[in-house]
Amino acid sequence: MSINWLRVVFPSIIKLPPPLPLRYSSPSSCSCFSSVVVAMSYDKELTAAKKAASLAARLCQKVQKSLLQSDVQSKNDRSPVTVADYGSQALVSFVLQQEFPAEFSLVAEEDSKDLRKDGAQELVDRITKLVNDSLASDESYSVTLSTEDVLKAIDSGKSEGGSQGRHWVLDPIDGTKGFLRGGQYAIALALLDRGKVVLGVLACPNLPLTPINDQHSPNNEVGCLFFAEVGGGSYMQPLDSSSTVKVQVSGIENPEEASFFESYEAAHSMHDLSSLIAQKLGVKAPPVRIDSQVKYGALSRGDGAIYMRLPHKGYREKIWDHAAGCIVVTAGGVVMDAAGNPLDFSKGKFLDLDTGIIVTNQKLMPILIKAVRESLEEKASPL
Ligand SMILES: Nc1ncnc2c1ncn2[C@@H]1O[C@H](COP(=O)(O)O)[C@@H](O)[C@H]1OP(=O)(O)O
Ligand SMILES: [Mg+2]
C-alpha cells in the first residue's frame, strides 16, 4: 500500500511520529477523558490492541466471505455471525491475556451461556476451529486451544468495568445486521483507565481506504484500521499493511456544506428526527447511512462532518458501542450526548443517557446541540 496516494486523498495526513514514553496531554476537545492530564504512555497496550483487532477482523472476513458465497437457503441462517462474533471475542480475549497476564479485565458483549447449552457442541467446534486457524496464521502463538479454552476466553469478558483500574472494552462484531447483509461492521476495542478511554482501535474490514462517496477514488480496496491513544492523535492504516497515516475530523464550519452519518437501520436511530435536525442546520446532502462504529472511523478521516445516533425511547447505550469510536474521532472531533454533556464511561456497562449521541467538530457542535434541542421540542409539541 503506497502512502503517497493516501496523502493525496487525505490531505491532512502526516507520517506517524515516534512514540514518546510519557505524554503531556493538552486541553482536549474529547469528552472521553479529562481535559488536562499528565498521561501515561499506552504504546504497548495499543500495539497489542491493534494486533488483536486485526486478527479478529481476519477471522470475521473469512466467515463473511463464505456467508456471501453460500446459497440462498443458508443466507437465512444467522449462525455465521454468531460464530464470527464468539470467535472474534475469544481471539481478542486470548491475545490480550497473553500480552497482559498480570492485569486483565475485559468488558465484552458476549458470554458463553448459550454455547454451554445442549445442542451447541457443533457451533462450539466451529468457533474453536476458526480461532485456532486464525492463531496459526500468526507466528506469535504456537498453541492449539481446546473448546474449553475458547469458552473460558469468551467468559473472560464478564467484567463490569467502572471507575477503578484498567478495563478493556470490546464489541467483537459491531453491526451484526451489516455483517449479515454483506455490508459494514467493525471490531471495536478500547482501554479504560480509571473510567477514561485512553486508547481505541476500530477494525473496519469493508470500509474503502478512500473516502466514501468519492467517485474518483484511485482504487476500491477495502479494510481500514483506525486507532488513537490519549494525547497522541488519530491514525488509519490498511488492515493488511502498516503504512500509517494521520487523520483529522472535517473542519467544515458551514453546516450547509456538511454531510451527516446515521444508522442504516431505522430501528436503531430515529431517521425522522435526524432529518428534522439536518433541515434546521440547512444540510443539503442526503444522509449517509452506514452500520456500526464504522461511522466513527469514516468521520475521523473527514468523510462526513456530523454523526447523529438517536435511538428510540428506552434503549440503553452500552460502553462497547462507543468507547473505541469516541477516542478515534478526538483529532478535531467532539462526542456528546444530545443534551450537550460529555459521555461518562466510568459507570459500568451502560452509558447513562437517554437523549442520543452526537459527534462533530468543535465549531459545529454548539449549532448542532441547538438544532437537536429545537427539534426535540418541536417533536414533543407539534404545532
Ligand atoms: N433497538 C436498538 N436501538 C439502537 N441500537 C441498537 C438497537 N438494537 C441494537 N442496537 C445496537 O446498535 C448498534 C449498531 O448501530 P447502527 O445501527 O448505528 O449500526 C449495535 O451495537 C447494536 O447492538 P448489537 O451490537 O447488540 O447488535
Ligand atoms: Mg454493538
TrEMBL record:
It is an enzyme of class 3 (hydrolase). Mg(2+) binds at E109, D171, I173, D174, D321. InterPro entries: DPNP, Inositol_monoP_metal-BS, Inositol_monoP_superfamily, Inositol_monophosphatase-like. PANTHER family: 3'(2'),5'-BISPHOSPHATE NUCLEOTIDASE (PTHR43200:SF6), PHOSPHATASE (PTHR43200). GO terms for molecular function: 3'(2'),5'-bisphosphate nucleotidase activity; inositol-1,4-bisphosphate 1-phosphatase activity; metal ion binding. PROSITE patterns: IMP_1 (PS00629). This is 3'(2'),5'-bisphosphate nucleotidase. Its EC number is 3.1.3.7. It catalyses: adenosine 2',5'-bisphosphate + H2O = AMP + phosphate; adenosine 3',5'-bisphosphate + H2O = AMP + phosphate; 1D-myo-inositol 1,4-bisphosphate + H2O = 1D-myo-inositol 4-phosphate + phosphate; 3'-phosphoadenylyl sulfate + H2O = adenosine 5'-phosphosulfate + phosphate. Belongs to the inositol monophosphatase superfamily. Pfam families: Inositol_P. Keywords: Hydrolase, Magnesium, Metal-binding, Multifunctional enzyme. Converts adenosine 3'-phosphate 5'-phosphosulfate (PAPS) to adenosine 5'-phosphosulfate (APS) and 3'(2')-phosphoadenosine 5'-phosphate (PAP) to AMP. GO terms for biological process: inositol phosphate metabolic process; sulfur compound metabolic process. Pathway: Signal transduction; phosphatidylinositol signaling pathway. Gene3D superfamilies: 3.40.190.80, Fructose-1,6-Bisphosphatase, subunit A, domain 1. Its cofactor is Mg(2+).
